[in-house]
Amino acid sequence: MRRNNSVWRRLSPYQLLLLGYAVITVTCALLLSLPISSAEGTRQPFLDALFLATSGISTTGLTVVDVGSYYSLFGQIVLLVLFQIGGIGYMTFVILMMYFLGIKGSIRTSLVAKESMAGPNLHVLKSFFLSVLAYSIAFELVGAAILAVIWAREYPAGRSMYLGLFHSVSAFCTAGFGLFSDSLMRYRESTLMNATIVILSLAGGIGFFVLKDLTALIVNRFNGRRRFRLTVHTRLVLIVTTIVISTGTVVILLSEHWPAGMGVYDKAMASVFQAVSASTTDGFNTIDIGKMAAASLTIIMLLMYVGASPGSTGGGIKTTTFGLLFILLWARLRRKENNFLGREISERCIYDAIVVGLCCMLVVLADTVILSITEKTSYLQNLFEIFSALGNTGLSTGITSALSSVGKAALIVTMFIGRVGILSIAFAVFSGRREVFFRYPKEDVFVG
Questions:
Q1: What is the pTM of this model?
Q2: Structurally, how many domains does the chain consist of?
Q3: What is the Cα–Cα distance from 347 to 331, expressed in whole angstroms?
Q4: Long-range CB contacts (< 8 A, 24+ apart) of 316-320?
Q5: What is the pLDDT of residues 398-412, one digit of tens each?
Q6: Is residue 265 in a domain?
């Protein structure tokens, strides 16, 4: 017993985080492969179940089967719980359960929880996770109620409430799983449906840090106190999110071959919806992705690569990473410091942004080579699927179900990397190495 405890204690917070997600994924894959999870009572191949479980925990939304028709109610609920856990982080449930049971957590538990949400200070950890729970419940319940009202026109009360809850949680967790074979294409002209999904996705995608900051701003303004300022993090998130979504909307609107007779309003609404879907990585679509123009697919891949924001339910390299890379570019071109909105950005943040961006592109490169060898689909389709998996988005041109076993395995690893984070995985692999107490002499290398 002491030996096991010793092994457990030697694991770093990053390794524990990685192990936790792996255990949950494999457990849910086993549940999804059981006959009780299938509508027809058949056993699903474990690789396919593992693919869906990884897609669920990473809130990606890619699936090799039609979720609404293939899985039974039990299987759908397992998936619902899975992407709910994946969306707000499994450590949220651990911390809150310990809090409500009166159990005092160790410093190691706190460190794992801190890494799971990429940033909250240890001294505010409990209050932060309480706010995560509060925001999640509020947005998901309100969204579920609105969607249930919409679907009450087509389905019985029980069914409409279930559809509302499933799709509301899926949207807020930016999971993109739906119970309709065409995602939300049949509701392309429904303003209320589009607006509800977009707001839920944006709320989940901008991150809980930003939601807390905006709430504090509103409360202070309501109470007449106008000295409160948004943090640099929040302002960077809002600026980058606005720019990428606006750019994506314009490109999609201008490059798509829209159906004859489709009005300007409906075109604009569909363009905004798809840009938000790619940027927040929610994965829903009201346009047939497989029939979109090459320019639209290209900008969507960029939006999926950038993704949502730190401390959010979404994936991607994150808006702040993308923003910091441009801050670095602009600063170096002008030979200035890395300044933004009157603040100097630390070198550590800049280095982390460079590492994340470069490592993710290396993952894309490796996957592209693998899928180009194993799959018979086009280069653009393969690349789109890879960006969707890495960004935990779930949008697809329709090739997911036809992937080979090697292709599925490659995307399983990619989705897992996208969810846990390339830095967390790197730190988990290289943690425990001996600290170096010396520095080498500096020397310049010619560049450019």
A1: 0.89
A2: 1
A3: 13
A4: 316/281, 316/390, 316/391, 316/392, 316/393, 316/418, 317/356, 317/357, 317/360, 318/356, 319/236, 319/237, 319/240, 319/241, 319/244, 320/233, 320/236, 320/237, 320/240, 320/353
A5: 999 999 999 999 999
A6: yes
